[in-house]
Specification:
binds sulfanyl-(tricuprio-$l^{4}-sulfanyl)copper; mainly beta; 663 residues; binds dinuclear copper ion; Immunoglobulin-like
Length: 663
């Protein structure tokens, strides 16, 4: 009923770039050196041997000897970031907000933030965390107050159909309280949150891309979740010193119901997740396979792992009842995926592929053949061939390490990898403050001994200390090799100083040419970790809610009323600019008051707000949306309920009186 406003304008043309937007990005080399060294000093000062012999080098000459370059020298790309007033961006950047707890939508290539979707945070603009509907999604304590009011979002991923985004759902994790949230792609509102049982430090997520067993299911039905912190089980204070008994669990959540389907017990700490295009494999990179509980203890092993999960075998094991009992008392089936229990490849549910030194990041190449796992404390990226992992599960490989088919030295502090659909990979080098572009096939040839293979194609300085990066349509089979977005952890001197707390710095690179070109940068409020860049015709949003989807909607303004049931009072209210349907409503001190407000305006962008002074109530209703709040009317007197959202020339007059009679 409300799709009428959803016209997708044609794409703005890519202008030939005259390079003007990259002026002023000249940099002071000495301050880069200082940053690179400072990052190192931190590690060295902790008394760690991190295996980075080349660390004394200035970051401009990288560990592989390749010259890096700065932006103004290069003009090989030719894409424009300039979006004229009134023109629309070509991509949606769905970005985590980090410890802001929210999710942001940023237009690319302009870098303009378009909206923020409250998820694990409380948001007094929209009323998220104030309204009964959002509280039900966030979860409450028996007294009705919110169970948690903080969140830490890291990774955003979208649902897939046929190997690419379908725009239906987006998921984002909360690392603090181990929750997975789902955002509806049609209205960009969080509709479900699931708290994962038995884990702490839920970090990486990835939806599957199809079902491994059912040929008809060519879309996302599962979301995989890695947990980073190993904890004792049960975690009730009885076994805190028995650190050998600590472990983590890999969790599968149903994409539709958002219920937890199963968990797998693993060794080590899991960070990121990736899934294969055939639905057969999911993987997490994993550090601390040595199971340390101190800083130094977690870094003693030379190799950790990328752990592969055989999805069909895990689900067959659960069907067959091959599960271990949960010491935590949850009824989620748990399969034993520890290395010791999976020594026999033909029966194994997990495969531990050895990767050097505390790997971070695992990403799937768009051709479906490889996962790339970065070394973090090793200057390498490991290329793992998925067909060889499957071969190991079939008993055809001696050692899981044989699944590694390339391991190029790419630079210092490699973290995350993106792809361009033309066979190249791009990896963030946290310590070098650079992005390295390298060729996957060349890396494989070099690993086989080809000394002439040109693995490193380009390096570019970024500002500074990059974490995640993603390319346009990365990790889909439609990876288009246009843009590469870098999330830099430090912005230092790139923006007007605003006191000790700095923004993060997001930089956009044009990757259409051989050389990467720094095209744009923008400050972001701390701190997006990860993001996906989705072409805009994938996402089809509605501009007006469907009134029928709110069971408590007041469909006719004439049904507005005050209803009393003992000391419980319900106010049925509607809004239509510039008035609420009741000019006043009377309750008694001590009443439990519920206000239900349906916005009858059906015009695009015509929302209203509803705030009650001294009662700490504040929320907005978008066109045809219904929200409700409940509170105890404990303060007698007159309280002007007013519209907070500018809606009309008479917006300031849009008010209603709450009259609370003294007890
Ligand atoms: Cu590398 Cu949480 Cu994805 Cu941040 S993690 S960078
Ligand atoms: Cu309604 Cu302002």
């Amino acid at each position: 009923m409300s799709n009428d406003k959803n016209k997708q304008p044609s794409l703005p043309p890519h202008h030939d770039d005259d390079g003007s937007m990259i002026e002023g990005m000249q940099e002071d080399v000495s301050r880069r050196k200082f940053l690179g060294m400072a990052a190192f000093t931190g590690l060295a000062g902790a008394g760690l041997s991190v295996g980075l012999a080349s660390c004394g080098k200035a970051p401009e000459k990288t560990s592989s000897g390749t010259e890096s370059h700065t932006a103004p020298a290069e003009k090989s790309g030719g894409l424009s970031v300039h979006i004229a007033p009134g023109q629309l961006d070509t991509y949606y950047n769905m970005s985590s907000g980090g410890h802001s707890g929210d999710l942001r939508i940023i237009g690319e290539p302009s870098g303009r933030e378009i909206t923020r979707i409250p998820v694990f945070n409380i948001d007094c603009m929209s009323g998220w965390g104030f309204t009964n509907e959002s509280k039900a999604i966030l979860g409450t304590k028996p007294d009705g107050s919110l169970k948690y009011t903080s969140g830490d979002t890291h990774h955003v991923h979208g649902s897939y159909e046929d190997g690419t985004y379908d725009g239906k759902y987006f998921w984002v994790n909360d690392k603090i309280h181990s929750r997975l949230a789902r955002i509806r792609g049609d209205v960009m509102v969080c509709d479900k949150i699931t708290e994962l049982p038995n884990v702490q430090g839920f970090h990486g997520i990835f939806p599957d891309k199809r079902d491994p067993a059912d040929a008809n299911v060519n879309h996302t039905t599962r979301v995989f979740c890695g947990s980073e912190f190993r904890i004792p089980h049960p975690n009730d204070g009885t076994n805190m010193d028995d650190t050998d008994a600590y472990y983590g669990l890999f969790t599968c959540v149903d994409a539709e119901t958002m219920e937890v389907r199963w968990q797998v017990k693993v060794d080590g700490n899991m960070d990121l997740c990736a899934t294969s295009y055939d639905g057969k494999l999911a993987a997490t990179n994993q550090y601390n396979t040595e199971k340390g509980v101190t800083f130094a203890g977690m870094m003693s092993a030379e190799r950790d792992s990328c752990v592969f999960f055989n999805i069909a075998r895990i689900e067959a094991a659960i069907k067959a009842g091959n599960i271990i009992s949960s010491p935590d008392g949850s009824d989620v089936p748990i399969v034993d995926g520890t290395k010791a229990a999976n020594a026999d490849p033909k029966a194994a549910v997990t495969c531990y592929v050895p990767i050097p030194k505390s790997p971070h990041g695992v990403n799937a190449s768009p051709d479906g053949k490889y996962f790339v796992c970065s070394g973090k404390l090793s200057p390498t990226a490991s290329v793992i061939e998925l067909s060889r992992v499957l071969q190991w599960f079939d008993g055809g490989l001696e050692d899981p390490r044989e699944a590694v088919v390339g391991e190029p030295e790419i630079g210092l502090g490699p973290l995350h990898t993106a792809f361009d659909g033309r066979g190249n990979a791009y990896t963030t080098l946290f310590l070098d403050s650079q992005i390295v572009k390298w060729n996957v096939d060349a890396a494989i040839k070099a690993y086989q001994g080809d000394k002439n293979a040109k693995v490193i194609i380009d390096k570019i300085d970024v500002h500074y200390q990059p974490g995640h990066l993603t390319s346009s349509m990365n990790e889909t089979k439609e990876s288009d090799g246009q843009w590469l977005l870098i999330g830099n952890k430090f912005s230092k001197d790139r923006y007007l100083p605003v006191g000790p707390m700095h923004p993060e710095n997001e930089q956009l690179l044009d990757i259409t040419g051989e050389k990467m070109v720094l095209a744009h940068e923008t400050p972001v409020y701390p701190e997006p970790h990860d993001f996906i860049i989705v072409k805009r015709d994938v996402i089809k949003t509605r501009q007006v809610f469907d009134m029928d989807e709110f069971p408590n909607a007041i469909k006719e303004a004439k049904d507005s009323r005050v209803e009393r049931d003992g000391s419980k009072v319900t106010i049925y209210l509607t809004s239509m600019a510039p008035a609420f349907s009741l000019t006043e409503f009377k309750v008694r001190q001590g009443d439990e008051v519920t206000i239900i407000l349906t916005n009858h305006d059906k015009i695009e962008d015509l929302g209203h707000g509803f705030a009650i002074p001294k009662y700490d109530i504040n929320f907005v209703v978008s066109p045809h949306e219904t929200k409700s709040v409940t509170f105890i009317a404990d303060k007698p007197g007159v309280y002007w309920c007013y519209c907070t959202h500018f809606c009309h020339a008479l917006h300031l007059e849009m008010r209603s009186r709450l009259l609370v009679e003294p007890a």
